[in-house]
Amino acid sequence: MDPLPEKIVCIGAGYVGGPTMAVIAERCPTVEVTVLDQDAVRIAAWNSGHLPVFEPGLAEIVGRARGRNLRFVEQQAGLAALAEADVVFISVQTPTKTEGEGAGKASDLRYVEACARFIAEHARGHTIVVEKSTMPVRAAERIQQVLASNRTGATFTVLSNPEFLAEGTAIRDLLQPDRVLIGGEDAAAVATLQALYAAWVPSERILTTGLWSAELSKLAANAFLAQRVSSINSLSALCERTGAEIAEVSAVVGTDSRIGPKFLKASVGFGGSCFRKDLLSLVYLCEHHGLPEVAAYWQQVVDLNEWQKSRFAAEVAAAAKNRRIAVLGLAFKKDTNDFRESAALQVVRSLLRSGCEVLAYDPQVDGARFISELGISAGFTAVSTARQALAGAGAVAVLTEWDEFRTLTWGEAALAPGATVVDGRGIVDRAAVRQAGRGLRVIGSPPA
């Protein structure tokens, strides 16, 4: 077994960097782990009792490792740690470009390149640089070019180690991963990273590939998962027209061992920071390499997801006779405070633009941050309980599958007369809603 690296640094203290480094620090107590970020407020939160990322089990792990071998430090205060690091992870955002070549599809690598320049300037000796952010294929070439331009005499090896975390279950995914993927051409560097993960991950689950295959594998995995969501959602619309029940169709399809049951639950659509962004990156790569038919195939997965959210918003707006709507859930899925690309953003924008008043509740999402991202404040109010959101509402839009929404006492909800519950996640107690005398529409189910 190769020896563990003594010191590692991660640049980026977001939804991936923070939890990943916390687990590494907890499972490898002899390794010094330093997490850097330019956002002083975020670093302060990681060093407080109220972490900036909500994940079940994360606070406990951070509590055990922080102050022992895990540190969260502002980027400029971490120069010494970077200079001494054996391994540096790049874990910053790679959003979709908004201007220039590839705008609207290609990944924006400005933050990654800035990290590479920062590493090139301050690293010393030989450093293994690990892509943790999701990258388009051959992005490592650009990182290598930037690192090679250093004037300090430092040398570097670049590896790809994409994350396969699902928000809401990130700690479980880190502790018991389906696979850890390491891509690279330098056998010694690959072995060093293998040794780090081997401290708790079975060797058969640590996969190694070439650098470019690792980069593409991450995009491919998210594309396949998103494709399953759009596929089942396309059938949910047909179920509503024909009288079929999507839950029954999904159960039958999922029993086929060649298909399996995961990601076959109809919904208002997929969200989060990865699926849409990675699909668009894949579309751009296909176009760039002269594969328009392949690009069109993956673009349709994105388009159907947007259509699903639009038709849901239209149904909610039509159901609210008094134009007052309760939105339950702003996060893109339960057990996270992340609302990037959430269905709630598109649905709420559509409702507000159609003249509706929206009262929204989510147990973890900060209402002020949501409003800032929403870009529209008139007509929108974030409240602190589901009961407050439901009061006087003519329609209810269930957008996140939080457990508390499964057990709401609909008979006690002060909804407007004739109110309708529109369930975008298929979780509400249908019998309880009907017993309370409320209308009910469920994604993939025929009208009651």
Describe this protein's structure.
The protein is α/β, with parallel strands linked by helices. It folds into two domains: 7-209, Rossmann fold, CATH 3.40.50; 235-442, Rossmann fold (3-Layer(aba) Sandwich), CATH 3.40.50. It has 17 helices and 14 strands. It has helices at 17-27, 40-46, 58-65, 79-84, 110-122, 139-148, 170-175, 187-197, 211-242, 246-254, 275-288, 292-319, 343-353, 367-374, 386-390, 403-406, 430-435; strands at residues 7-11, 32-37, 70-74, 87-90, 126-131, 155-160, 180-183, 206-209, 324-328, 357-361, 380-382, 395-398, 420-423, 439-442. The strands form three sheets. A six-stranded parallel sheet has the order 3-2-1-4-5-6, sandwiched between helices. The chain has a six-stranded parallel sheet with strand order 11-10-9-12-13-14. It has a two-stranded parallel ribbon with strand order 7-8. Helix 11 runs antiparallel to helix 12 (292-319). It is globular. It starts with 6 loop residues before the first strand and ends in a 6-residue tail after the last strand. The model has no long low-confidence stretch (mean pLDDT 95).
